[in-house]
Specification:
The protein has 328 residues and is α/β, with parallel strands linked by helices. It has helices spanning 11-22, 36-46, 54-59, 81-89, 104-117, 131-141, 167-184, 278-291, 303-322, and strands spanning 2-7, 26-32, 49-51, 66-69, 94-96, 121-123, 148-156, 187-195, 205-212, 217-223, 233-239, 242-247, 252-257, 264-267, 326-327. The structure holds nicotinamide-adenine-dinucleotide.
Length: 328
């Protein structure tokens, strides 16, 4: 049984907690939040010890096999650095939330410390932990799509938060860009246009063009002024032999051959109902990596992947600021 700690007990920390509670290989032994009431409530709910700082938790000598860090902060990532660095420095594997950080320099330091300590450090890039994405990747890898020419991604939700100019790009698009990288690999060049929605102060809409290192060309449409019946996300892979569409991360998958009209389609592949199911799926994969003692550089959705995504995000912002195509 792996002994788990959770740092940051907001909505998402509690979602992680539910996944660990339901997984037979994990037991939550510690919960930690700067806000005493949140830590105490979680301690009671999950039958764990409450702490009010990571330092105090580490000083207590409690044995931890791994921790989730589900803090938030500026652009939903500003608070991750301190608790993550404290845990990594103590040799504890961390599953962080996205964005890995809203500041690339801090993300680099966290990745470097995990590497130096040779410990697993993953990020909850949960959108691609779906049977549909896995099946589409298998098709791609086996050549069923031919060569991948184009990848299109749309990801949007309603989010009225006005906290900082690039909140939308930094907080939401680690997910979309990670899914794109999963299929098409590293990004070489980035160009972006942003637009503020009506009455908004922040850049709440974006169109990004991407050139991947393998030559695939990609496009991301993103918005905080959409959602509801617009859906959450659509990913389209356009190959020389076939086109694949994934709707709502896991709800629909279809395969459209180029030279035939016989479409193959799946709904809720693998029994995955809807987006919230991606949390137990991703956290389950993290637990399996810990149990199998997967080498830190081989774990799925590792922090380095999240850092690479952050570099694409910063390049998109720089492209808009300068009017140029940015080479990574
Ligand atoms: N993967 C996903 O699909 C998904 C979806 C939504 C949000 N998120 C991410 O989840 C994270 C958390 O979101 P939330 O809505 O639960 O945030 P929240 O603000 O509700 O909760 C964060 C908690 O962390 C605590 N905290 C901050 N710094 C701390 C520290 N050093 N030590 C202990 N506790 C600390 C805060 O007191 C707060 O209670 C964000 O990074 C967000 O981007 C991920």
């Amino acid at each position: 049984m792996l002994r788990i700690g959770i740092v940051g007990l907001g909505g998402i920390g509690n979602l992680h907690a539910r996944c660990y509670t339901e997984n037979k290989h994990t037991q939550i032994v510690a919960v930690c939040d700067l806000i005493k009431e949140k830590a105490d409530a979680a301690a009671e709910k999950y039958q764990a010890r409450a702490f009010y700082s990571v330092r105090e938790m580490l000083k207590s000598g409690i044995k931890l096999d791994a921790c989730s860090v589900t803090s938030a902060g500026k652009e939903n990532g500003g608070d991750h650095y301190k608790p993550t660095m404290e845990l990594l420095a103590a040799g504890i594997p961390v599953l962080g939330e996205k964005p890995i950080s809203n500041e690339v320099a801090k993300a680099r330091r966290m990745v470097a410390l995990a590497k130096q300590k040779k410990i697993p450090y993953g990020i909850n890039l949960n959108h691609r932990f779906t049977p549909s994405a896995v099946r589409a990747k298998e098709w791609l890898d086996k050549g069923r799509l031919g060569e991948l020419n184009i990848i299109n991604m749309t990801m949007w939700i309603n989010n009225p938060n006005e906290s900082s100019p690039h909140f939308h790009m930094r907080a939401l698009h680690p997910h979309s860009l990670d899914v794109m990288r999963y299929f098409a690999g590293d990004v070489a060049k980035v160009q972006a246009f942003f637009k503020k929605g009506p009455g908004r102060q922040i850049w709440s809409n974006v169109q990004v063009n991407l050139l991947f290192a393998n030559g695939t060309i990609g496009h991301l449409t993103g918005s905080y002024d959409a959602g509801g019946s617009y859906g959450l996300e659509t990913c389209e892979l356009v190959g020389s032999q076939a086109r694949v569409i994934i709707n709502e991360a896991c709800e629909k998958l279809s395969f459209h051959p180029r030279f035939s009209n016989q479409v193959e389609s799946y709904e809720h592949l693998g029994g995955m109902k809807s987006f919230p199911d991606t949390f137990p799926s991703r956290i389950g994969a993290w637990i399996e990596d810990l149990r199998k003692k997967t080498l830190p550089e081989k774990i799925d959705a590792k922090a380095e992947d999240a850092l690479k995504v952050q570099l694409v995000i910063e390049a998109a912002i720089k492209s808009w600021d300068t009017g140029k195509v940015i080479t990574l």
